[in-house]
Write a structure and sequence with these properties.
- There is one protein chain.
- This protein is an alpha/beta fold.
- 35% of the residues lie in helices and 14% in strands.
- It has 2 domains: 148 residues, 3-Layer(aba) Sandwich (Rossmann fold); 112 residues, Adenine-specific Methyltransferase, domain 2.
- It contains 10 helices and 8 strands.
- The structure holds S-adenosylmethionine.
């Protein structure tokens, strides 16, 4: 098992980074092919040892960034040099190498000086992507890193539509990138970007294969949850029953309770499997239900 948990350089909303210390001991020890239908930022696969990684996410843009980082894993230094060059050209803060934010801006905007400093350059970069003048996943990655909440979000017309965040390309980002490169460079990893059900159905599973699933949650809102409804949830649970019949090991992350809501579909379904409570949010029906969230890992082994 991996002892130091690595964070994905995508800093993805809803990532499993903080839960990994609890999740990893619940995973099988010996994994042949590791399947992840909902890869997101990749915090989970980066902390798994397997012979092969078969990774999927419906977001084509997200997978294009993973693919780019994988293709360039042997040239990590060059990628960071390119980041540095782009940051200079667009006058973006770059504390991983130097602090260029003027002191007077820091004094004037004590808590938001990165956003103030980066806004102009960020808008120019975003325009390049949205006017199709730039199709480089590194530029898209930089829009995430310097963007609001580090999200990857497009509007209905396919335009990247987040604004600058109060964030920087700092040493933490550099470290996460270098960790990503050094992990993936000698691994056998393939990516797909299709619906989870088609992804699972298109593979033949063998002994010691393991499927980890971290889908959007039916009862909690995140950007990628907006197309996830009861139909998707039912498709997912049926598919897991099929995997179980084929003796394929799976582990599903989810929440059964969120504030005052309950996911009854999941609560009933999980009775046939093993359920482990994870997370640090103490769940109690009687404390007004405000911050209550009950996170589980459901396994068939
Ligand atoms: C909770 S996030 C996964 C987070 C990931 N475990 C991490 O640590 O970063 C769920 C992911 O499912 C993807 N997704 C949503 N609907 C999907 C579908 N029908 N098929 C495949 N992926 C989907 C979203 O794009 C999102 O990245």
């Amino acid at each position: 098992m991996i002892s130091v948990v690595k964070r994905s350089p995508l800093f993805y909303i809803g990532d499993k980074y903080k839960l990994l210390k609890q999740l990893l001991p619940l995973f099988p020890q010996n994994i042949n092919n590791f399947y992840e239908p909902f890869t997101g930022g990749g915090s989970v696969f980066l902390n798994i040892l397997a012979k092969k990684y078969i990774l999927n996410d419906l977001s084509k843009h997200l997978i294009s960034i993973h693919q780019f980082l994988n293709d360039n894993a042997n040239d990590g230094k060059k990628i960071l040099d390119n980041v540095y060059k782009i940051a200079i050209r667009y006058n973006l803060s770059r504390s991983f190498r130097e602090d260029v934010v003027p002191q007077n801006l820091k004094n004037e905007y004590k808590k938001t000086y990165y956003a103030q400093f980066n806004k102009k350059g960020y808008d120019k970069l975003r325009a390049l992507v949205n006017e199709n003048k730039e199709n480089n996943p590194l530029i898209l990655y930089l829009l995430v890193i310097y963007g609001f909440n580090r999200m990857l979000r497009f509007n209905g017309g396919g335009k990247f539509n987040l604004s600058v965040g109060n964030v920087d390309f700092n040493k933490n980002v550099e470290k996460a990138l270098l960790n990503y490169f050094s992990f993936v460079k000698d691994k056998n990893i393939v990516f797909a970007t299709i619906d989870f059900e088609d992804f699972i159905k298109s593979h033949k599973f063998t002994k010691d294969d393991f499927v980890y699933l971290d889908p959007p949650y039916l009862i909690a809102g995140a950007e990628y949850n907006k197309y996830w409804g009861e139909d998707s949830e039912k498709r997912l649970l049926n598919m897991l029953d099929l995997l179980n019949k084929k003796n394929v090991k799976f582990a599903l992350s989810n929440i059964t309770h969120y504030k005052k809501q309950k996911n009854n579909l999941l609560i009933n379904w999980k009775k046939q499997y093993n359920s482990h409570i994870v997370g640090s949010h103490y769940f109690n029906y009687h404390n007004n239900g405000k911050k209550d969230i009950k996170e589980v890992l459901i396994t068939n082994y």
